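Structure ticket #2291
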Amino acid sequence: MNDAGGVKCRADQKRTLWFFVGVGVVGAVLAAARFAYRGRLLDVWMGVGTLLALVGVVSLHAVTARVDADAYGLHRHTLLRRRSVPWSDIADLRVRLKYANTPRVQETRRVSLALRDGRQQLLPLPHSWSPDDPDFDRKLDALRTLHRRYGAPESRHVPVISYRTSGRGWAGSLSLCVLLLAGAAVAAWFVPNAASQEREWRSAAPCTAETPATERGECLSTQPAVIARIEVNPPKQGSRLYFSDSRPLERLWVSREAALEFRVGDKVELTLWRDQVREVAGTHHVWREHITGAGDVAVMAAGFALAAGYPAARVLVRLRGRRLPDDDVLPSALPFAGALVGTALWLLPLCYLHPTTLFTSRTAISWTAAGALVTSAFFGWAWRATRVRTPAGSGVTGESAEDDEEVFLAARFLEHTDYNPYGFGTHIVLGGGAPPAVTPHPGPDRFAAKPIPVERLTVRNVRRPRGSDGDTVPRNWHIAELDDAGTPIRLSAAPADLTRILHELGLTLPSPAV
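Resolution: structure written out below.
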């Protein structure tokens, strides 16, 4: 890794990567030979060869990537590009944290460059697939040491950027919001057509002998049929009825419930409208095809619009926290999700019952006005719940616990200590005539409690949570950075509870630091 005061990062498992490069070469040869022999692109072997060739290209890119660092800066080498960045242009070295959506949640870490012109650049190496990777930590420490020696880092700690922090981009959420709103607009555009089709279906009359041939598609015609075979499938796959001699059609998709009710050999009557079977009537059961009405389409449009509200709320939360450091954890957007659910409780029934008369019916207008007031209250609560709370300053005191009353407050020391072995503590108990202690339960007794050595502790700082504090710290908690006889530790709790705990411990809160 280190060479004459520099840092060299190379890909791991080079033999495996070179093996896949060879597989990619074989795939490219196979695809080229198949194309030359068949002269067409749509071929199974052609697809297999192309897929293997793509795997080879990705593996070649990974095996040839390297990152070197020396007194002059960082030097990146990839398959098609080389770039160097001097230390003076780098504002900070950060860790970009991602989670892979696998059956077992996997954490990946990469190093990101924060340049002084505001741009972000992701380094190909080092790359870690585990939260506990000593080799990745050593390389990161070596890079930061060089940066401190030859550059001017903006932060003393390692900023960790994750999906919870303010430094994560919001372009994805904005794109999803726009896509869902477009879906809502398309669904709303189909509401009048669905309403017209629904009215025509309900007003359709049976065909008569006088009905012209050109208009028979708009009236109801009936034809006899005999069920020859029934195919019953799981509910999501749909079931089918087969008719004797394929008359008037070979098969018909029906619901699973209808397929279970009919019997082979049943004589049924089919009702056709616009050249499609809309009804199957037998002796014991009648199946009717569901006609998508205006209410169904209006509910779909409203559902898309409400779904677009959550990514919009995530964008709003990030815009509200744009002045925070990039590694500060933002409040959760879940309160806005609750407001959207509350809105759906009155909006979806309204759209279903009044799909085309939202602005003309007095009942719909009154319903909308009352619902808008409820929604305003919900969103007002969500706006307040997602505000950014800064730590309390010095001189702030908390409520004291009575000597004969034990109070259990949810709080966690994030480091392993003699009074918090292996991070077992979930609460801190105060009062009761005994010193404060860490417990692995919320009470009501002090079973397994370990007293906190108050005389060893001093407060360094109180701040908001950062990406490096981990996902176990709730977004709305605060972090107290303490000194335990020379060892830095962190105590996390809700803002009011943290203030109270520090007051009971006899510790003075410093000025706020964000």
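Closing remark: The chain has ten helices and 22 strands.
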